[in-house]
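Hi everyone,

Forwarding the result from last night's run.
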Amino acid sequence: MAIGKIISRDRAAWRGWPRSAILVSSALLAVAVSSAAPARAEYPEKIIKIVVPFAAGGGTDIVARTTAQEIQTDLGKPVIIENKPGAGTIVGTQTVATSEPDGYSLLLATFAHAVNPSLYNKLPFDPHKDFAAVSLIARSFNVVVVNPASKINSISDLIAEAKARPGKLNFGTFGIGTSAHLAGELFNAMANVKMTAVPYKGAAPAISDLLGGQIDVMFTTVASAASLVAAGQLRALAVTSAERSAAFPQLPTVSEAGLPGYAAESWYGLYAPARTPAPVIARLTQAIAKAVQSGAFKQLSTNEGLIMVGSAPEELDRYVRQEEERWRKLVKDANIEVQ
């Protein structure tokens, strides 16, 4: 109850008192009321959960677990990972969309978060209205690889071969709408060629067929290709990022190697449910910015081909909206549909 209301209600009881005594008594009463009010607890008070909408063991899972490991030290509370794969990341994403907006249930989102609105006629959540951006953790890219027995030795060779054999060359993907798929479709569109996408259930079976000569090329992740490239089992032609990578410093970008303006990348971003309090978002953003400077993340930048960011929430929101618009046009133009 406000102090003024207490004093006003009992005004008769104060008659005859010196003004100074009334002021002192009022101050003491204010202190008493303030002391009785419960203090707002500092975030976090309990375990934080990061939902990964993919199975354990993949690249996204590795980034999530490294993130959890680093930010729990800063936040002072355990951060655990919950893998909820299914329906092209929709299952895990919806779990967070419907969670309490208190900062204890978070989403490690990826490329799919920006692409799914174009692939599906209807989603059980709105990727913008139902989420609060926290931070763009990192960006990543793919590597264009071929079998070392192939006569394709460069991006220019790939373009020339695809033009000479329309529809005959094929490229392996991790599924419809994945970064490996859309990177190849973007290549088709910009080079004005037609390579056929062959979907697989993950990178491993696709690479197995590339090694066996069943497919001609892949736009695959650094993690899946690095050791094979180093061992001479795959030939790397270029990286799909806009700039060269420290993971493959000798490789040109696709843009440099024969397709000017080409760039295709994936990303990792942290989200909370919409209406999560601003101070909670700010605390998490601060923890991410510190985490990406750690030795563990520097190691990931080499092993996974990551470009560390650790952005403010508004930068993640702006970046994803741009990606969403960009891939929407490609999905429409290429008539890509989820079966």
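Confidence is low (pLDDT under 50) at residues 1-14, 20-39.

Cheers,
N.
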